[in-house]
């Protein structure tokens, strides 16, 4: 099957073994319970401070319905709704590449449920990839204390199987086979930029 770069999809395990991904290291840092969003925000700020990348969490558009003023100089939103479905969680620029990705956390050990990803998110990531950007999902398995960068090319195969009622989740073994393990560190917590470099090389992407 051909994907946005015009090449047949090959899993990471089928590609050149000369570029092994860094092994995810289990770090016993104080914030073991830190959520994926917080870890990514800290990592992105670390990258920004060093001029390595400009990647931010996207704001979710809301429509304010009701505002209370408990104090004269302070407003409090008491009712609001989402104006539209959000696309993905993060976007930005890295080495001239447009980067757009979703962040997903799970407490499962053996799989990730595909109903936690929405159709419009997959369509958005596919469109970004077709336009020449880099799209992927960063998974955080909280019980394993492991994080992975999962390319859109692999996710599209899962999504097709999900729509055909052939699969309801992504087996963890498949994530191990096709994703890039993200090294866990103190600074940054999730050092995923080197994995983007490897993703670019493995899939033959170019500007």
Automatic annotation (TrEMBL):
Keyword Cytoplasm attributed: yes
Binding note for cofactor: Binds 1 Mg(2+) ion per subunit.
Region annotation (Disordered) ranges: 1-25
Site (Transition state stabilizer): 104
Cofactor: Mg(2+)
Reactions this protein catalyses: Endonucleolytic cleavage at a junction such as a reciprocal single-stranded crossover between two homologous DNA duplexes (Holliday junction)
One GO MF term attached to the UniProt entry: nucleic acid binding
Enzyme Commission numbers on file: 3.1.21.10
Pfam families in the cross-refs: RecU
Cell compartments where the protein resides: Cytoplasm
GO cellular component: cytoplasm
Record SUPFAM superfamilies: Restriction endonuclease-like (SSF52980)
Keywords: Cytoplasm, DNA damage, DNA recombination, DNA repair, Endonuclease, Hydrolase, Magnesium, Metal-binding, Nuclease
Xref: InterPro entries: Resolv_RecU, Restrct_endonuc-II-like, tRNA_endonuc-like_dom_sf
GO-annotated biological processes: chromosome segregation; DNA recombination; DNA repair
Source taxon at top rank: Bacteria
Protein's job: Endonuclease that resolves Holliday junction intermediates in genetic recombination. Cleaves mobile four-strand junctions by introducing symmetrical nicks in paired strands. Promotes annealing of linear ssDNA with homologous dsDNA. Required for DNA repair, homologous recombination and chromosome segregation.
Family: Belongs to the RecU family.
Protein name: Holliday junction resolvase RecU
Species of provenance: Aerococcus sanguinicola
